[in-house]
Amino acid sequence: MAKNRQRSHTTFRFKRFEISNSRSAQRVGTDGVITGAAAPVDSESPVEIWDAGAGTGLIALMIAQRNPLAHVTAIEIDPEAASECRANVAASPWPDRVAVVCDDIGVIAPSLPRPDIIVSNPPFFASGDSGTPDARRALARHDGTLGPLTLISLAARSLSPGGRLTFIAPYDRNDSIMFHASFERMQPVATLDIASRENREPIRRLWTMMRRNDAAMRPCMSGRLDIHPSATPATYTEAYRKLTGDFYLDF
Description:
Layout: E1 6-8, E2 11-13, E3 18-20, H1 30-38, E4 47-52, H2 58-66, E5 70-76, H3 79-90, E6 98-102, H4 105-108, E7 117-120, H5 135-141, H6 148-158, E8 164-170, H7 174-183, E9 186-197, E10 204-211, E11 221-228, H8 238-244
Parallel strand pairs: 4-5, 4-7, 5-6, 7-8, 9-11
Antiparallel strand pairs: 1-2, 2-3, 8-10, 9-10
Helix pairs in contact: 1-2, 6-7
């Protein structure tokens, strides 16, 4: 992650907002920043956006900054994280456009405004992987409650007509994600493969999907983002700086 100047070790300062990160189990990280910066949420008309598994509210606030006509519902199941998310939203420039809901998204989804866009940095370790003794951190990291496959199913039944789902996941889960998307009649319309350095294999993929009927005749646009140059790994590529430059203080 870029070396943002911090007010303390638990507060991350961005150009237009701050994120307190002392109570949420899932910390602010590069995956969330890339998702918030690259998700196709720019629009010239009002849109309803869900941040599914919002954590600290990082992605929700990045979306609010990028799209001044968006209303964002940040949904987080963990009460401590939801409380911190509310505080971060309240301290931001956009408290009137970001609503925080503490609940299981699978339960509460039918009662929420139908989204035009769902964005998520979901838990993606398969159950039993990378075990942790901390129950809240396990909930934030493992996909038993809101993993990529659950998210695809949720989007298939929740999105408004023409709506889009964008989420980030490990690159080695591409096959299972494609299989499940096909099962749910969801079709990728854009992918962004993310590598830690130039000339290395990708470690993440950012997916954007639509229902198959809505995506008819749309080719899938693919791209790649390298975070660090191979020659100077302590710096950042121009592409990464351009993508995140509206947010990081140092860019």
